[in-house]
Amino acid sequence: MHARLGYDPVGDEYKVLCVVIFDGHERDTTAEIKQEHHVYSLGSHSGWREAQITTEKSYTDVEGGICINGAIYYGVGPTKIARFDLRYEKVTFIEAPKDYYTSWSLINHQGKLGGMQYDNYLYELRVWIQEKQKLWNKMSCVAPCEWRDLYKDKRPSSPGEIHTGEVMFVSDRLQSSRPFSVFYCDVIQESFRSAQVKGIADYEFRRTHGIGMHDLDMLCFPGYTENIMSLWP
């Protein structure tokens, strides 16, 4: 079961897409893997409903998820990306580039679907931007030495782009032995910068929140805006 949140700007609605995957092979070796797509509109009080999606494409993976201009995108395999139209509640599939990897992080690049990957062997940052349905623009640049030392044995996480068009990178692990830093990269300008977030990995933070000295998983979100407006009528 995989849930994704999206916003339909035409209908001014927030909707949740829930993809439920049934693996029939556990009971019947001849059964096919299939999906159900359920939709919930926030504030409607109408409950969940099953979207009547007619597609012959079956998939077993739901990787990532990002909402861009009224559509939710998520990876569904080594060569496909699914696009769920929030207004019409239909699923279509996009052919990924030939060098597409499931370890992509999907990003919103100035209103266009994009994907990025950091190669920690070649120390190279790669970004793909969808210009048309089957046309992708690829850009790459070499990461600075500071990144090479930080991400030598692990892959950084990219939660997406910020308002300046820079791709945001963070470590997906909080280590007590290192300060927590956020890195930004502009692939077009091939520029890099970083900012250290103080007060997260130190002893006082851990003591106050009851956190031990072990490494912890980190989740980061770009473009955070605080708004007390209720989504419920």
Automatic annotation (TrEMBL):
<dbReference type="Pfam" id="PF08268">
    <property type="entry name" value="FBA_3"/>
</dbReference>
<protein>
    <recommendedName>
        <fullName>F-box associated beta-propeller type 3 domain-containing protein</fullName>
    </recommendedName>
</protein>
<dbReference type="InterPro" id="IPR017451">
    <property type="entry name" value="F-box-assoc_interact_dom"/>
</dbReference>
<dbReference type="InterPro" id="IPR013187">
    <property type="entry name" value="F-box-assoc_dom_typ3"/>
</dbReference>
<feature type="domain" description="F-box associated beta-propeller type 3">
    <location>
        <begin position="4"/>
        <end position="207"/>
    </location>
</feature>
